[in-house]
Structures are given as structure tokens and as C-alpha cells.
Specification:
The chain is of the alpha+beta class and 438 residues long. It is built from twelve helices and 18 strands. An eight-stranded mixed β-sheet has the order 6-10-11-18-17-16-13-12, sandwiched between helices. The longest helix has 23 residues. The chain is elongated, with a radius of gyration of 27 Å. It starts with 23 loop residues before the first strand and ends in a 20-residue tail after the last helix. 36% of the residues are buried. The mean pLDDT is 92. It binds one RNA strand of 75 nucleotides through strand 1, strand 2, strand 3 and helix 2.
Length: 438
Amino acid sequence: MINSLDWRRTHYSRDVNPEMNGQEITVMGWTHEIRDLGGIIFVLLRDRDGTIQITAPSKKIEKEIFEDLRKIKKESVIAIKGTVQESPKAPGGVELIPLSLNLLNESKQPLPLDPTEKVRAEIDTRLDSRFLDIRKPAVSAIFKIKSRMLHSIRVFLEQNEFLEINTPKLVASATEGGTELFPITYFEREAFLGQSPQLYKQIMMSAGFDRVYEIAPIFRAEEHDTLRHLNEVISIDIEASFMNHEDVMNILEKLVVQSITDVKTHCQDDLDVLGREMEIPSLPFERLSYDDMVDMVNSHGVALEHGEDMSRASEKALGEIMEGYYFITDWPTAIKPFYVMPDEKNPEKSFAFDLMYKDLEISSGAMRVHKHDLLVERIKNQGLNPASFEKYLAAFEYGMPPHAGWGLGAERFNMTLTGVNNIRETVLFPRDRRRLTP
RNA sequence: GCCCUGGUGGUGUAGGGGCUAUCAUGCGGGCCUGUCGAGCCCGCGACUCGGGUUCAAUUCCCGGCCAGGGCGCCA
């Protein structure tokens, strides 16, 4: 038996088909299952995209390979050189008859969880041994979809003339208000992990980059403990000049539809593994005003005052009424951040919107205040100190164009694509209230 | 942060004041040439921690730790 990487993979399991009958190939991966029937051994070799059956009849292969094969432990890393054999009895109508076996690395036993899922493990156990958990097709499917989702979003934004930017995640100020920040030590000073690229992407509007996007982590030190919050998530942010809230809503809904279409086209196998039937939503998404939303929630038996932010109960009620993706618009100015532009005709209401999927908020955005004096007034009204926004406010004094933007939660969007109900499922190594490893 | 529930072999579970602690999967060994949740036989492996009640605690009580669920928080 060989034990070093002096071969190279010629095919992934999914590339092998019955038409390749007789061809000699090399596959590499993990031993998913081993069924030793005495005179014949079946090994399921799993790689990134599937499995292929290695079939070893004792009479037809070298005795040494046969003996080595029967000793291999589950989840070991192997490479097999073999001959493709068309066979109606094999899964997928094709199997590989081994000519040579290369044990690249043996796995310890017993395993901390079962990658074949005969016995399911709890999320906590799974996250502790995430490397093994992700070997399961139903888990890796989520991340292949996430990869495609992010790819399609980048393609869409580039097609629409957005420039990718990178803004700092180490920030000085804890004065943006709202969420709790994670304090860190920055040499002799205190600093924080960034909660949002909001202020920086707005500054870029003044810098003349009139369409920007960033896909990057944001950090929030909230002690929340729910299925839809984490302390580190990926935010997909855009900001665009010479646009209002309607313009960026149009961009957002088109982006969502294009991304769904792309995932459906390229990740059908992964969607199948997840048992996910994807429908491509039609455009435009329904626009529901905040006031109408409150009335609908109330008439569904859940109390919500006009002017109040949504409770979980009201989100759930709305999720029972509304289908798929929809916007909530015309939010009360008072419950939105200072940089959101009030409607000049009715300053109680703002040009802010949320994008919902059933009962889950996946994005929020707005047309922004671009006039310096109004912005200062809004900062004061929210009990914040304009002095701590000095560097941000300066960008508004020398030609800040009107602009709008939004932030889309990558994991929450991924949840709507994959149908998983725990946001932890959509992050390789999630960070929540208690978990900081692996 | 609040409320509820739980913590039993590697994993997932049943149970319960004293009995060899149940089952599945797994792991180790054996048999088996078409398995595909393979099958059959033999074996291995566990009561979260501290304190209390009791003749006796894995079981009851209190506390800690950890986890699951719900809510709150989430510019």
C-alpha cells in the first residue's frame, strides 16, 4: 500500500459515468461507508460533491489490495486508482474496480459524530466537531449554496457598476448608538469592532464613488440568544448616489431574484439534498406600508401600537399573512437611525424600508440625510453628540450628493434559500453568546 | 438579562430511591461474493459537577456549570 501523495486526482465522483466504462481513473476522498461481505467489499468514497462506489471482488483484484481495503477505517483519506465499470447493480450505474490503493491518512475511531447520519447529532455536538459535520452532504450543501449566492451577488453588483470597497473593522467610536459594541485594546487606547460600514460607505458617496458595495463581517455585542442572531455575521452593503429609497429597493429586489435564479440553476443538487423546492419570486415585490402592516398585525390578533417597532409576535403574525419576499416601507422616523431621511411632506414618516421573507427581516435600508445641518439636528435629537461624528460630518460639508443604500444579512438571506431555521447552520464557525470555538 | 425544559456509553435515546441501567447506532472480533440504513453471531462502552435528605441517590431537594426552546435586547 502506498502512503504518499504522488498521484493526482483525475476525476471527482460526480464526473464518473457509465460511458467511461473501462477507463482508468484516480479518485480521492474519504471512506464514507465500508460494507465487507466476505468475498466482496464495497467502499463508498466520498469527495466534495458526492460518492462513488469502489467494488472489490476478492477473485478479481489483487489479494493485497483486498486485504488492505478491508482494514480501512471510516472517514480515512484514501486515493484509488481503478477501472471504471458500468454496472446496473451499482449506485448511479457505475463503480470503480481498484487497481491500486493509497491510504493518505487514517481516521481515529470512534468518530465524535456520524457523518452518514444514521444517528443524528445535536447542533452543539455538531459545532464542536464542525470539520466532521461539514462532511455531511446536507451540511456542505448549505455552504455551496452560500458560495454561489455571494458569487451571484457580486456578479449582479458589478454588472450594475458598483465598486467593491473595504472599510475598517477596527473603529474608534462607540457613539453611533444602538447596538452594543465589542471593546478591544488598540495599543494604548480603547477601540471597537465595527457594527456596520454605514458611516464609511456614506463618506465614499462624498468621495465620488457613486455606487459602492462591501461584503464583510460586522460585530454586535448583543446578548441575544435566538435562532436568527449571531454576534458575527456577514453584511452585504451597498450605497449609491443620485438615488432615492425607491431606486435602491428596485436594485435589491432584482438582486434577490437574480441570486435565487443563479442558485437554482447551479445548485440544484444541493437544493435536492436539502429537500428545498425553490420558486423564483416575481417582480416587483409587494410594498406594504408600516401603517398597513400595523393594522394587519392587529387584525390578526397581535397588539402593536402605531409608532412602535415590531415585536417577535408581530413578525410571526405578519409571517402568517404574507408570502415570500416583501417590503415594509414608510417607517416612523422616530424608530429609525439618525441618518435616515424623513419624508419632507410628513416628517413623522421616513424613507426607510425593510425587506422581509415571511417573518424574517433580511435587509433594511433607506434614503439618507445628505444635508449637513439636518444631520446634526437628527444626531442631537437621538441623544447623540455631533462632536463624536466630526470626521463623518465633515464629508457632508463639501458636496455630499443625495444617496441611499441598504444592508442585507448574508446569513439570513441564505436561510431563505436553504430553508434552515437556525442561523448557526449557515455559518461555518458561528459566534454566539457562548460559543467562541472552534 | 428573564422564563421554561433538559444533562444517562463516541452519537442519539428509554428508565428510575436498592435489581447485571433499555434500545438503536458505533467500536472491536468472527461469518458471509452484489451491498446500497446490508445481514447474522460474540464482545466493548454511560448516569454533568458540588452540597443536602436517606440505611441507601444516577433517580428526590438546593446551588453551579453546560445545553435546547421561548422572549427581550438587536443605530
